[in-house]
Amino acid sequence: MMGHASIVTFLNHYLSRLVTVDTQAVVRGLEPQQAMMRAACTMSRSIDPRRPQRLTPTQSASVNDQPSIRILLERRDKLKRSGRQITRHEKYRDLNRRIDQERQRQRRKLLSQVKEDWEFTQPVQDVENQLAGICAETVENTAPQLHGSVAPEQRALIDSINAQPGITIEEEFIRRSNAIRAVSAYCGVEEGRTNLSLYQQLSRRDRSLDKQSGTSPPDTALDALEAAKVAVYKEKRPLVCFVCLGNELLPLNDRIKLFSTSSDVSKHFKRKHLKHIKPDEKSSCEICQISLDDRTHLQRHALDAHGTVS
Fold first, then answer.
1. Helices 198-213 and 220-234 meet at what angle, rounded to 10?
2. DSSP for 174-204?
């Protein structure tokens, strides 16, 4: 249309569709913001629901094969064989802390590498799927669900924003119009708390049942406690701390507090409870009504009975 003889003119004198240069900073004579440009260029991939968010169990366990961790594990095994009561010594506990820290560092490094590899390989795979005639809906079905218990307006907003681009210009205009309407409809929705406590969830459920049946509301506090007790017994990795749950001196919301992940429960258990117990100090589990001989016994009971890893 512009009368150029070949594509060389565009390659030499025009920016590509993927702008990787901070042109505004260059024109104004400022230092280019490379990190911001990289983030802007990978924005569509960073919000992709298929993007890895955490390591798989196999990937997480693979960090034990790292040379640095293997050396520490061999050193710990050698130290453990040197005496019976060596596990109670500060040197052994310090070595355990170093192993945990190195594992976390290697896991963070591996997760960063997995995300980086995905950002380069997934677009190529998407293009290959498109050339092979694989429908976009088939690829979308492999992604995790973006919305669970959300308002209809929010569900429509998520679906419209993440809809696949249209094949024709008319379909693209329709997709854009649907997204604009979804955003406009969501502007009138009042957002509440993102994470409800177990007590609030049960209270909302009970009020809904009361309206349907016309019966008097049950004891929601007792129901919340019972639901939390069932969780720490039956769930493989519960999100409730069993020690706090058994402490009747704590407020109800603290006893039945829901953590975001099982890792958060483990961190809380170590920092708030396990850290303050001496190796030979006796303790007890108020939920199970049993006494525990020492800290190791508590750790074993936490894992076997209540799914809390420490």
1. 120
2. HHHHHHHHHHHHHTTPPP--SS--HHHHHHH
Supply 52's token pair: 């890895």
Question: What angle in degrees, to the nearest 10, is found between the helix axes of 90-131 and 67-80?
Answer: 150
Q: What is the pLDDT along the chain (310 residues), one digit of tens a residue?
A: 667 777 777 667 665 555 667 778 878 888 888 877 777 777 777 777 788 888 888 888 888 888 988 898 888 888 888 777 777 778 888 888 888 888 889 999 999 899 888 888 887 888 888 888 776 554 444 444 544 456 677 778 888 887 877 778 888 888 888 888 888 887 766 555 445 554 445 445 444 544 444 444 445 667 777 788 888 888 888 888 888 888 888 888 888 888 888 888 888 888 888 888 888 888 888 888 888 888 888 888 888 888 888 8
- Residue 248, classed as helix, strand or coil, is coil
191 φ/ψ sector (left φ>0, alpha ψ -120 to 50, else beta): beta
The whole-angstrom distance between residue 41's C-alpha and the CA centroid of its chain comes to 24
3 state DSSP class of 32: coil
Listed residue (208, 205, 236, 237) closest to 223, CA to CA: 205
